[in-house]
């Protein structure tokens, strides 16, 4: 039993990362209908950047994350302006190809700037807490807390603020939103900025919990899409539930079924959901 | 007219490569170009005819590769006697579990359904593992350095090509049944998921495909270079060409492959063109252009989508089997789902989606660029950095960046084509 609990705790930590990735993807998808494949690689860029600041320039971790976050915000704006805005009114396939191309480009930039070595963001959280046999490394606890905080902030932003209302309005009915005086030109910018910033946070978490290496971002974004299907496309609660379900399933499967297939569980779960509940766990039929 | 000119230009590229570098290089690129063209044709059948996103092309290609191993490698007798029967029993057990679960799902309802299905799956899984694990270990223990897997059927390797198509078609049927009829984005993500699953299975199931230990020495449909060099009549005949026996034999082997691939490609183009211009093809385009109207005309949209999805994937599977045959080895670790899928999509988009010849043209052109960007880029950087001092940081950096220029070039080509000829080089009529 203790072992099951232990795996669940591990699953929540990695699930938190999935939720952050999926939140970024789901807002972009829900509002702009773009399958933003480059998201994983951009997130890894954020992780690399943090690593670079901490190791090469000796910045304290929090400051490094903060700078990476700001860069992430700006990067999101740039991606929208330069990559997706020109193809907004074109055929659906163009945005899709741009997304794939952007992925390759960002992966290339990561390779060029940071090399192909696997890097781990150094942290000095080495304590391990023990609750009745279940151990939680300090770092994992902070990751869970930070993810929870970000998810809460995101929810408050989307539900309570004026901009959040505008985002939801555009997602629901773009034309009506235009008629109501929502500036549909700036909304995508805001969405991409936030989405990328969330991605950067996820990148930092992956980089400190596990490691960043070329290809990790691609794997992550594919899982992010699996989470979207799991939870229901375009739904924020869906992304949260889907990410946690996936994280916990993965950890349990790795612990009790087969660790070789850990990364495939996501797709098996996704295909079962498509078969039996295609609108997703939290989606409306 | 435009078709002839563009194909002529691409032919010139290959001929130029032959003169400037070597005919051997040119033929190597051309052989892979033929395979790429077939993959692009498969994607074009799905996207161009029916508007279906498939971003799991590599999964179907990998299945084709698996087919090559399963058909052509000699069976490992020892491994079969060690655990062959048991492993087949275990797989049958697994299949029975799935069928039992589906039947339980259909017969029950409400909360009892969830519990019953879960119970069936759990029991089935435990039984499967008790049968499977010892059998797998027994097979993988048989001479792990050279075999450690069941091997294939020892049949002629050419037979693997249609089998690869069949395997891919089977996988496509499963994906299609799951995700077609839902939103189009679901299909894209489901195909990517299935590709990841297929590649993970190939990487991890050593008893089936030797996993990351690779299968090498797959039999060839054409003679080996060394046999040609040792054959007196061959040396005699080629002596008149003015080439050394080594070069002559390498080129003969490549030309034989070229002939085989060209036959497949031409047959597939002919079939695709016939299909596209038949009533069936017109129906497919009608569905693509307006699903609602086609449905109102009494066309079964989902069934037609499934059909075309299976056909396109089968073509990719055939290409995958051909690729593994050409390489002579199966390396499950090298199938990168996103990267190569991107390349094939670029071929289709640049060539002109919806036009079979366009996709084929894109296949040749993009593959040629993909290989030649590095030498071309190195030459270009050599000229740019010529005035700079040797050993300067910028020069070193620029020269080093050549190896990352492939993807960049693909992006630039894509942008240029989309900007000046948005529907591809050979647009659909």
TrEMBL record, chain A:
InterPro entries for this protein: ABC_transp_permease, BCAA_transport_permease
GO terms for MF: transmembrane transporter activity
Localization, UniProt: Cell membrane
Bilayer topology: Multi-pass membrane protein
One annotated Gene Ontology cellular component of this protein: plasma membrane
Domain of life: Bacteria
Single Gene Ontology BP annotation: amino acid transport
Keywords assigned by UniProt, alphabetized: Amino-acid transport, Cell membrane, Membrane, Transmembrane, Transmembrane helix, Transport
One Pfam family recorded for the sequence: BPD_transp_2
Keyword Cell membrane applies: yes
Family: Belongs to the binding-protein-dependent transport system permease family. LivHM subfamily.
PANTHER family, per the entry: AMINO ACID ABC TRANSPORTER PERMEASE PROTEIN, BRANCHED-CHAIN AMINO ACID TRANSPORT SYSTEM PERMEASE PROTEIN LIVH
Protein's UniProt name: Branched-chain amino acid ABC transporter permease
Gene source species: Harenicola maris
TrEMBL record, chain B:
Sorted UniProt keywords: Cell membrane, Membrane, Transmembrane, Transmembrane helix
Cited Pfam families: BPD_transp_2
Gene Ontology cellular component annotations, sorted alphabetically: plasma membrane
Single GO molecular function: branched-chain amino acid transmembrane transporter activity
Domain of life of the organism encoding this protein: Bacteria
Location of this chain's protein in the cell: Cell membrane
Membrane topology: Multi-pass membrane protein
Membrane-traversing stretches: 28-45, 52-73, 79-102, 114-132, 152-174, 186-202, 255-276, 306-326, 338-357, 364-384, 404-421
PANTHER family with a match to the protein in the record: HIGH-AFFINITY BRANCHED-CHAIN AMINO ACID TRANSPORT PROTEIN BRAE, HIGH-AFFINITY BRANCHED-CHAIN AMINO ACID TRANSPORT SYSTEM PERMEASE
Record-given protein name: Branched-chain amino acid ABC transporter permease
Phylogenetic lineage: Bacteria, Pseudomonadati, Pseudomonadota, Alphaproteobacteria, Rhodobacterales
């Amino acid at each position: 039993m203790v072992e099951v609990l232990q795996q669940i705790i591990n699953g929540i930590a990695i699930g938190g990362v999935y939720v952050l990735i999926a939140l970024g993807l789901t807002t972009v998808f829900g509002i702009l209908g773009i399958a933003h494949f480059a998201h994983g690689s951009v997130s890894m860029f954020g992780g690399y950047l943090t690593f670079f600041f901490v190791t090469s320039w000796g910045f304290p971790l929090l400051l490094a994350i903060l700078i990476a976050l700001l860069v992430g915000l700006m990067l999101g704006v740039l991606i929208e302006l330069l990559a997706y805005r020109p193809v907004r009114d074109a055929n659906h396939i163009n945005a899709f190809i741009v997304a794939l191309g952007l992925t390759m480009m960002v992966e290339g930039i990561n390779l060029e700037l940071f090399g192909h070595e696997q890097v781990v963001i150094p942290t000095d959280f080495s304590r391990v807490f023990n609750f009745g046999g279940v151990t939680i490394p300090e770092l994992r606890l902070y990751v869970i807390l930070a993810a929870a905080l970000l998810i809460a902030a995101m929810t408050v932003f989307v539900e309570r603020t004026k901009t959040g209302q505008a985002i939801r309005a555009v997602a629901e009915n773009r034309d009506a939103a235009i008629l109501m005086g929502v500036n549909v030109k700036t909304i995508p910018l805001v969405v991409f900025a936030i989405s990328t910033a969330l991605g950067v946070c996820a990148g930092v978490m992956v980089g400190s919990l596990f490691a960043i290496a070329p290809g990790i971002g691609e794997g992550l974004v594919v899982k992010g899409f699996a989470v979207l299907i799991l939870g229901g496309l375009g739904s924020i609660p869906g992304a949260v539930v889907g990410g946690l379900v996936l994280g916990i399933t993965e950890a349990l499967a790795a612990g009790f079924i087969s660790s070789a297939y850990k990364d495939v569980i996501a797709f098996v779960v996704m295909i079962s959901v498509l078969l039996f509940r295609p609108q997703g766990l939290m989606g409306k039929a | 007219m435009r078709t002839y000119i563009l194909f002529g230009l691409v032919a010139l590229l290959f001929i130029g490569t032959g003169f400037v570098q070597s005919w051997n290089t040119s033929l190597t690129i051309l052989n892979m170009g033929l395979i790429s063209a077939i993959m692009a044709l498969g994607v074009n059948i799905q996207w161009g005819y029916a508007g279906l996103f498939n971003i799991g092309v590599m999964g179907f290609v990998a299945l084709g590769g698996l087919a090559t191993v399963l058909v052509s490698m000699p069976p490992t007798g020892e491994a079969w006697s060690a655990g062959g029967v048991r492993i087949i029993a275990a797989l049958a057990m697994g299949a029975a579990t799935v069928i039992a679960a589906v039947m339980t799902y259909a017969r029950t309802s409400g909360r009892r359904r969830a519990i019953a299905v879960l119970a069936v799956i759990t029991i089935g899984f435990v039984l499967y593992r008790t049968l499977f694990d010892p059998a797998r270990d027994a097979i993988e223990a048989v001479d792990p350095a050279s075999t450690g897997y069941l091997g294939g059927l020892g049949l002629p390797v050419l037979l693997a090509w249609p089998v690869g198509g069949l395997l891919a078609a089977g996988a496509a049927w499963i994906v299609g049944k799951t995700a077609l009829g839902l939103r189009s984005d679901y299909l894209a993500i489901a195909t990517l998921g299935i590709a990841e699953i297929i590649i993970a299975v190939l990487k991890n199931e050593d008893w089936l495909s030797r996993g990351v230990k690779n299968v090498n020495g797959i039999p060839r449909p054409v003679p080996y270079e060394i046999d040609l060099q040792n054959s007196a009549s061959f040396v005699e005949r080629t002596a008149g060409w003015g080439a050394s026996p080594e070069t002559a034999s390498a080129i003969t082997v490549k030309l034989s492959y070229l002939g085989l691939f060209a036959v497949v490609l031409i047959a597939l183009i002919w079939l695709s063109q016939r299909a596209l211009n038949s009533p069936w093809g017109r129906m497919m385009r009608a569905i693509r252009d307006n699903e609602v109207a086609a449905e109102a005309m009494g066309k079964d949209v989902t069934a037609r989508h499934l059909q075309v999805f299976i056909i396109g994937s089968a073509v990719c599977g055939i290409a995958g089997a051909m690729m593994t045959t050409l390489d002579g080895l199966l390396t499950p670790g090298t199938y990168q789902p996103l990267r190569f899928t991107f390349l094939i999509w670029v071929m289709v988009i640049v060539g002109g989606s919806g036009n079979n010849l366009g996709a084929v043209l894109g296949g040749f052109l993009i593959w040629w660029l993909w290989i030649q960007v590095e030498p071309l880029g190195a030459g270009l950087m050599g000229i740019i950095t010529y005035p700079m001092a040797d050993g300067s940081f910028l020069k070193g950096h620029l020269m080093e960046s050549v190896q990352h220029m492939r993807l960049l070039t693909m992006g630039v080509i894509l942008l240029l084509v989309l900007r000046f000829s948005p529907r591809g080089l050979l647009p659909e009529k």
